[in-house]
Amino acid sequence: MVSQVGGTVVDMSSTARAQRPVHRCTECGWSTAKWVGRCGECQAWGTVVEAGAAPAGPRTAVSAPLRSPAQPIAEVDAEEARFRPTGVGEFDRVLGGGIVPGAVVLLAGEPGVGKSTLLLDVAARAAEGGSKVLYVTGEESASQVRLRAERIGAIRPGLLLAAETDLGTVLGHIEANDPDLLVIDSVQTIASAQVDGSAGGVSQVREVAAALIAVAKRTATPVVLVGHVTKDGSIAGPRVLEHLVDVVCQFEGDKHSELRMVRAVKNRYGTTDEVGCFSLTETGIHSLADPSGLFLSGKRDPVPGTCVTVTLDGRRPMPTEIQALTNRTVMPNARRTTAGVDSSRVLMTLAVLGSRAGIDTAGMDIYVSTVGGARALEPATDLAIALAVVSARQDFELVDGLVAIGEVGLAGDLRPAVGTRRRLSEVARLGFSRAIIPAATDLEGAMPDGIDVVRAEDLHQAITAAQFGVRRRPIRLA
Q1: Annotated binding site
Q2: Residues of the chain with CATH 3.40.50.300
Q3: 35, 314, 368, 463 — which has fewest CB within 10 A?
Q4: pLDDT-based confidence at 474, cuts 50/70/90?
């Protein structure tokens, strides 16, 4: 529709379209003309809000004056981005050597895994080194945190504690104390009075994170945020939170085990291949610089149905013992039970043993497990699983000090694993004397000292090498 107003021709339809309100997704920015309950782009629920009239053109103009002029990259001071050790070696390993001034680290994990205990220990170590640390808790009272600090030995004069849930009050504490390290436990419990919605909502989490990140960059204060996770293990809150922070760490661990692992999902200052290992006990959380013996049973004499392999968790080799048990069953459907290993790969390995190696497992219940709650999910553990099952099925002991590394193909062939040399160096350090690896493995240099490496092209050769020189157990009658 076109009309003439004061001698000017105005397109009323285009003006109406320009002034029509637009609804945008707070997660991904997708826009729509009317409100919908679910975003059509990222499929998130409840994130589409009214964003006002659609802009007819750019709304941002040049701001003046510039706070800092652009300068040649060679003249930029790099000392401001140097790593500062926190005093917790395994946490520094994951961060890349320490925490960078002005960096914002997000530590996420399931409830009860030990996030607060770890960060309280990090805060105490930093305070012990002479830094002023501000620990803000929104989930517990100050007295509850004090009791935990006494239990783990984290009472330090330089560790300041505040129990607050209001963002404005938290910013006031930061301005009044000027800390060298700030810990927020957790970002989902802090809320701003200037933003609608309850604490933990999308708008609140975005506002809290943006305010804390702005403070961190302006004052060069490193900030560590604790984040909750959802049922599927992802970080709760808007997805943009992971993009805004500098480092995202995932804290993992089984509640029935003392072992805890921290791995970096995102790291702007280092690699994401490192894994930090901790032991969570009643007296606190302790770094495990050498966790190699955690997943070995400790038996010195060979036992049928056991074989050791080496998994790579990030860049860290983890020797893991695989145990297998076979038992004759009268049930029409034999049971296949696994713990700590990939059940689908176990089933494929059993099929290859029956078809390519003549090891019949039909009519037998088979149980395959790892020791110490380890997770051996990578294909490099196939050969160890196969040898453990064969050893249990035939009731013989493998060669003493044997390690098996390799992927088993459906044709019965063996395929090389990534980082085999690093794995062999670790087991040689632990005293293992024999290793079976795929023939096509390229070790890129001399063999590690103290270990005899046997190359096998298929399962037949691997089983023969594993039985070489062993003694069979005598049959025990009931």
Answers
A1: 109-116
A2: 81-289
A3: 35
A4: very low
